[in-house]
Amino acid sequence: MPVSSLAIVPDFLIAVLAAWLGASVVSRNPRDYPSRPFAILTALLALWGATRVVRALSSAPPVRDTVLSVEAAVAATLPAALLHITLALTTGRRWPPARRAALAVAYAAGLLVGALSVADRAQPIAVTPPYRTLAGLPGPALGWGWIGLRAAIMALAVWWAWRAWRGAPPPRAGGGSPGAVVAAVAAGAVSGTATLLLNALGGPVWVGTTLIAISLGLVAYGVVAQRLLFAPGVARRSLSYSLGAGLLTALYVALLLGLERLSRGALAIETPLVTALALVLTIALFDPVRERARAFLDRDAAQRERVYRRLLRALGDELLTSQRPEAAVGPALERLGRALGTGAAAVIAADGRRVAAYGAELGPASPVPIALPLRAGERECGRLLFGPKRSGAAYSPAETDLLRNAAAFIAASLHLAEHQAAQAAALDALTRERAALRSREVALAEALARAEPAPPAPGEGLRVYALGPLRVERGGERIRQWGGAKAGTRQAEALFAFLYDRAERGVAKDEALEVIWPDVPLDRADLAFHRTLGGLRRTLDPDLKRAGDSTAIVYHNDRYRLDPALIGWSDVARFEERLAAAGALADPAAALAALEEARALYRGDYLDDCPFYGDSEWVEERWGLLRGRFVDLLLALAERHEARGDRPSAAAHFREALAVAGDDCPRADAGLGRLGLPV
Q: CA–CA separation, 39 vs 21, rounded Å?
């Protein structure tokens, strides 16, 4: 590789590392205040590295001049950004006035020089001509002064980071975030100063950029391994997912490029057909593939949370059960640590387990000015530990009272978490017992069904009219209220239609939830299903004392089925019976009468206005089958009237068959042609 190509490798690494670090921290920890100045610093570094790469590779003078001015403007604000992230990591949000003033001066100077660099590209602030003079200062003096100011800003950042590290408790083996901050800031300051001096003296700038790339590597190490900006587990997952996604993306792009090249050579076309189709498929399949991959990677977590979700459904109060109680301990500890400026804090359970931690790890030899017991009633369930402040100041009485209140809150959260875990285990055991009881109930119901007498004769059960708008009658009275006090009548009617249509195939609960409660959260939809099922059972069996005693709807092999004996008569069964009888009768008049009776039963499409279920995909198959049978019925009526010489009736039935079939019925067209009538 030539020297010119080797020289841009550090710039390329700076752009890539800065972009990855900034995007990873901001996307995974957006609410943490240090993430914002870190995003500013990494964005500036990524832009700076990218402009240097473009300037080295571009052969167009206008492009080189433009990126050079952008590079100078970005470089002018980088020391202020380094000072900003140092303050955010070592001081939190409460900065002394002197530090606020220093940061404001650093940003103001950087923005002013950056604006001048963009406005007048021909006269930059430099130590060698061409250079700018300002307020009577010669160009070299102004250039060296600007270099000195930036070096002083970076040295100030190193000083503040070192003071914060000296005031923090010493970390255990493996290090901690204060030391990582000092190392990263010092490396950035040294490499930045080296780059400034080499650039001013005409030396090999790639040496300084290599040092900057190395310092970014130290920052990446601090983020991934030293709890800098977010937890190590999150950082490691971020690194793994980023590398995995990057490799998959690279393979995908390489595959597309290869296919595009092969297709152009094989088809002799220049249109990027494969790329266009791949883009469409990527847009269409991205979300489903991502969700399936997430579900595959998170299978263990879903298994662990299943019992807890059952407990949440049993409690039923979303506001109080939106998160686990112990989940509030970590954020509360972090907020306290940042507000008080402490270097380390931890919550230790009674069994020695570390429930939550903030800042540096507290070891057995670490100084702990604040150690409060966590008491739940008479029992001690752990300890709250707070290390020294970063500033070295002692905790005030007001801050100590605040920590006592925090200890009471954390103790209550841990106590509640223990109770909920016990309740979840008890609920799991109850669920297993209920499943065993349900299997015995099903076995008993089947035995009773075998011992019961024959079902009542037709007419004694429900009369179901499903060809057209759904109507169900009992004893000559139409059923209008399907649900109970806690179940909607439309949902109960839809559930009855589903059970009636599926007959012996039965209905799984998930199928009913998908059709009737598609946009309702799973726990609420599950509760609504069981309430609706109970209301429907009482509607079908008015004398029912308990929903569990109902035989109208039975549960077997994970499916719910409607008792066939419940239906005394249905227009669908009668319709099919009359059609079969018409085909078997030898007497033309009797066959025509059977067809006319079947025609009168067909009031409209199957389950035409049934809520929820009538528009679902589950009903489409039988809906199409019955509509086809109805077209066959109309054609048979037309042909029989034609054979009898009744041309008006024959033509009317042919035209009706054509309309129902959507103007696509060759037999009807042929029949009208035989009658000499227009189609």
A: 8
The Cα–Cα gap between 383 and 378 comes to: 14
pLDDT tens column, 61-86:
888 888 888 888 888 888 888 888 88
Tokens 């509760």 correspond to what residue? 527
Residue with tokens 């206008």: 62
Q: What is the DSSP letter of 475?
A: T
Please give the DSSP secondary-structure letter assigned to residue 387: -
Is it the case that residue 559 has pLDDT exceeding 80?
yes
d(CA 593, CA 598): 9
DSSP string, 268-289: T--S-HHHHHHHHHHHHHHHHH
Q: What tens digit of pLDDT does each residue of 448-500 get? A: 444 433 433 444 689 999 998 999 998 888 888 887 655 678 888 888 999 99
Burial grade of 672 (CB within 10 A; 0-12, 13-18, 19 or more) = buried
Q: Are 631 and 615 in contact (CB under 8 A)?
A: no
Instruction: Please tell me the distance from the alpha carbon of residue 544 to that of residue 533, in angstroms, as a whole number.
Output: 13
| 8 A C-beta contact, residue 32 and residue 231 | no
Sheet hosting strand 370-376, strand order edge to edge: 354-359, 344-349, 379-386, 370-376
- Which band of pLDDT confidence, cut at 50, 70 and 90, is reported for residue 2? very low
Burial 374-395 (b: 16+ CB within 10 A, else e): bebeeeebbbbbbbbbbbeeeb
Confidence (pLDDT) at 227: 52
**Please, which residues bridge with residue 354 across strands?**
348
pLDDT score at 391: 75
Cα 156 to Cα 162: distance, rounded to the nearest angstrom: 10
Q: How far apart are CA 400 and CA 546, in angstroms?
A: 58
Measured between alpha carbons, how far is residue 140 from residues 132, 134, 144, 201, 664 in Å?
9, 11, 6, 11, 91
CA end-to-end span of the chain, whole Å?
Answer: 80
The neighbouring-strand residues paired with 356 are 347
Query: Which residues lie below 8 Å from residue 431, measured CB to CB, with a gap of 6+?
Result: 310
Tell whether omega for the bond before 138 is within 30 degrees of 0, i.e. cis. Answer: no
Longest dimension (CA), the chain: 122
Q: Is the pTM of this model over 0.70?
A: no
396: number of Cβ within 10 Å: 10
DSSP bridge pairs for 567: 462
Calpha distance 454→162 (Å, rounded): 91
pLDDT tens for 346-393 read 888 877 788 888 888 776 667 788 888 888 777 788 888 888 888 777
Asked if 594 contacts 582 with a C-beta cutoff of 8 angstroms, the reply is yes
**Higher-confidence position of 137 and 70:** 70
Number of alpha helices (DSSP H) and beta strands (DSSP E) in the chain:
21, 10
CA atoms within 13 A on the CB side of 624: 5
CA-to-CA distance for 665 and 660, rounded, in angstroms?
Answer: 9
Strands 462-465 and 471-474: antiparallel
What are the tens digits of pLDDT across the range 311-333?
444 444 443 334 455 566 777 78
**Residue 587: φ, ψ to 5°:** -75, 120
d(CA 665, CA 87): 81
Report phi then psi at 479, rounded to 5. Answer: -80, 120
- Tell me which of 15 and 245 has the higher pLDDT: 15
Which is more confidently placed, 429 or 659? 659
Give buried/exposed letters for 594-614 (b at 16+ CB in 10 A, else e): bbebbbebbeebbbeebbbbb
Least confident range from 230-239, 255-264, 275-284: namely: 230-239
For residue 289, the Cα-to-chain-centroid distance in whole angstroms is: 13
Q: What is the pLDDT of residue 174?
A: 35
What was the pLDDT predicted at 575?
92
